[in-house]
Amino acid sequence: MNMMLSSNTGDRSLDALVQDVLAGANQTARTASTLPPRVYSSQAFYDLEVERIFKRDWLCVGHVSQVANVGDYYCVDLLGEPLVVVRGKDRIRVLSRVCLHRWAPIATGQGNTNLFSCPFHRWGYGLDGRLLGAPFMDDAENFDHKSCRLPEMRTEIVEALGLIFVTFSDEIGSITERLATLCLRLKNWKIGELVGVEPSEMDAEFNWKIQLETGMECYHHFAAHPKTFEVDHPSRLSWCEDSKGTWSTCHSPARDDAPDEVYTIGLPTFPDLEPAERRVFDLYHIFPLTRFSAFADRVNFRVLYPMGPNRTVSKAMWLVRPEVAARKDLIEERFATRRDFMNQAAEEDYAIDLMQQVGSASVLARPGRLSPMEATVWHLAEYVRQRIAAN
Ligand SMILES: [Fe+2]
Q: Looking at the predicted structure, is the pLDDT value of residue 287 above 50?
């Protein structure tokens, strides 16, 4: 009896939270408030996000340059699913990396191979997931290894951006079509041709939305980054476009008198950019979990992997022209000039995000009014609202 009561209380609590989330709809960038603070720490709301957002939308799992050659692979853990992204002779696949035999992982880390071999009993799989051999299985009746294949995720490559997307949904439409306007916007960067360098990973004890919201607005530059971003990219010049539904963008131009150098780290700039595109610091959010920032000589690319309401792993890299990526000394030298700056700015965000996570869990916390300068925070809230409302 008590268990039932407590379970009912839990459901009612989630229902009430969902109603609070939906109550924030029908606002504008000038009237909007944040989502209810509990959506950043509630396990029940996170579980609802998994079902209604992450498992029904397209999720990016990397860039094609991470599997440039046949046999290149890397492992990804997506919402608890052990996966391997691999380039076969014909195409890129995202396969389950759970052995069909007794579920050990057939791959770990990253590398290049022509055969995935399970360490448990050496069942071997080709790059297309087909089971090529299973030792000592000759006496197993009606076992035909040729008919066995690792399950494959529904996958789509957005060629213009070089992004590898997967989805758990059989129903959702093409992600390439939904990102057509973003592909057009970024066409001169030719992101599909770029190559990832300087990879990094972060494992943080805050909610995925907290990390993305901070990464998508520049209102906080003057307060949280007085000696880093605010110096050249002051808050007062930042502005957000209207949401595009599947993506959102915030611009952080430099001071009018800033030299061109603030827009690059001294790598060769992308050759096809228009003059105005050479003076940008633009932030892009592909809902729900992918983030870009575009500069004249490099693009930052980050994918988030939510691990729970209070924990988010994210993987980032810088995308540069292939001929630039091949010049390892130049990459090392130019990124070194900005490394202390970027690390300091990242630490400034990290410290704030950790404190925000604590604050959002306060029973006294309430939704906060947003500045139009952080409309991107509202755009994400709108996306979450629409997805949560859909049964
Ligand atoms: Fe920041």
A: yes
- pLDDT category at 260 given cuts 50, 70, 90 is confident
Q: Which helix (H) or strand (E) holds 214?
A: helix 208-215
Residue with token string 């606002």: 27
3-state SS assignment for residue 30: coil
Measured in angstroms, how far is the CA atom of residue 230 from the centroid of ligand 1? Answer: 10
**Average of pLDDT values for 198-227?**
98
- 224 Cα–ligand 1 center, Å: 7
CA torsion 379-385-387-391 (nearest 10°) is -170
Question: 374: CA distance to ligand 1 center in Å?
Answer: 12
Q: Look at phi and psi of residue 245 and say left if phi exceeds 0, alpha if psi is from -120 to 50, else beta.
A: left
Residues 155-180: what's their mean pLDDT?
A: 98
Q: What is the 65 CA–ligand 1 centroid distance (Å)? A: 28
CA of 261 to the centre of ligand 1 (A): 21
Predicted confidence band at 10 (pLDDT cuts at 50, 70, 90)? low
pLDDT for 9 beyond 80: no
Report the separation in Å between the CA atom of 349 and the middle of ligand 1, taken as the mean of its atom positions.
5
Task: Give distance in angstroms: CA of 266 to centre of ligand 1.
Answer: 23
| Average pLDDT of the residues in 69-94 | 98
Q: How far is the CA of 218 from the centre of ligand 1 (A)?
A: 7
**Structural domains of the chain, ranges and CATH numbers in brackets:** 27-57+181-391 (3.90.380.10), 64-171 (2.102.10.10)
Predicted pLDDT at 4: 40
pLDDT of residue 391: 76
pLDDT at position 11: 62
- If you average pLDDT over residues 53-75, what whole number do you get? 98
Rounded to the nearest whole angstrom, what is the distance from the C-alpha of residue 344 to the centroid of ligand 1? 10
Residue 225 Cα to ligand 1 midpoint, Å, equals 7
User: What's the gap in Å between 276 CA and the centre of ligand 1?
Assistant: 24
Tokens representing 283?
A: 């932030």
